Amino acid sequence: MTKTATMTFNPRCGTARKTKAILEEEGYDVTVIEYLKTPLSRDELKRLYDRAGMSAKDGLRAKEQIAKDMNLADASDDEILDAMVEHPILVNRPLVETEKGVILARPQDEVRKIL
């Protein structure tokens, strides 16, 4: 049986590239979602965060200037999800999903927890 994984990916992100390499080394067929080109829907983001046991705030790239400009540090998860849909750069990556679960692979070796 083929092992599969889906991950949010930014080719400019070293952590995402290293995470993808780990998955491939472990024999996973990796589906890449370049989320800056093909943004995730609000429902998909919520599903991933729920499955990972994390809040939208946990998945926020808070260091992005747009996050600061929008005062997202004090925002609700619903407000953060809305902002992520409008500004996909706010989604921290890589989010990886396998049959065993979902994890924010930061640092990249975190992905091993769901392999």
Description:
- This protein is 33% helix and 17% strand.
- It has 115 residues and is of the alpha+beta class.
- A hairpin with a 2-residue loop joins strand 3 and strand 4.
- It is globular.
Outline of this structure?
By secondary structure, the protein is α+β, with helices and mostly antiparallel strands.
Q: Number of DSSP helices?
A: 4
CATH names the topology of the largest domain as Glutaredoxin
**How far is it from the N-terminal to the C-terminal residue, by CA?**
14 Å
State which percent range the strand residues make up.
15-25%
Rg over C-alpha atoms, rounded to the nearest angstrom:
14 Å
The CATH class of the largest domain turns out to be Alpha Beta
Strand segment tally: 4
Structural class: alpha+beta
Question: What is the H/E order?
Answer: EHEHHHEE
**Rounded mean pLDDT score:** 97
How would you write the strand order of the largest sheet? 2-1-3-4
The total domain count is: 2
Return residue spans where pLDDT drops below 50 for at least 5 consecutive residues: none
Q: Describe the main β-sheet briefly.
A: 4 strands, mixed
CATH superfamily of the largest domain: Glutaredoxin
Helix content: 25-40%
CA-based shape: globular
CATH architecture of the largest domain: 3-Layer(aba) Sandwich
Please name the defining characteristics of this protein.
alpha+beta, Glutaredoxin, four-stranded mixed beta sheet, 4 helices, 17% strand, arsenical resistance, Arsenate reductase, Thioredoxin-like_sf
